[in-house]
Amino acid sequence: MELSIPLTLFILYLLLNVIVFCVYWWDKQAAIDGTWRISERTLLSVAFIGGSLGAVAAQQMLRHKTRKEPFRTLLMIIVALHTLGAASWLLAPDLTRRVIAVIAGAI
To answer: Burial, 96: exposed, middle or buried (Cβ in 10 Å; 0-12, 13-18, 19+)?
Structure first.
C-alpha cells in the first residue's frame, strides 16, 4: 500500500508532535525528580521544527513551563508562525511554494 504525500506528511507531523510531547514530559519528570533537565533552547527548538502543538499540549496538560518567561511568550510566537504558515499554505499554496523556494535558495 502506497500512501499519498499529504497523508505521509500528516502522519509525520503527528509523530513529531507526539515525540515533542514526550520530550516535554521527560523534562517535567526530570524537574520533579531533580535530575538532569532538557534546556529551554532545546524545548523551543523541537517546537519550532514542527512540534508546537505537541509542546503546547504538554505545557497545558502537564502544567509545565506555564509561568516561565520568556519561554511562554516564545512558544506562543512559534505557534503563531506555524498558524500563519498553515493558513498561507491552505489559502495560497502557489505563493507559499514560491516563498519557500526563495527562502531555500537564500540558505
So the answer is: middle
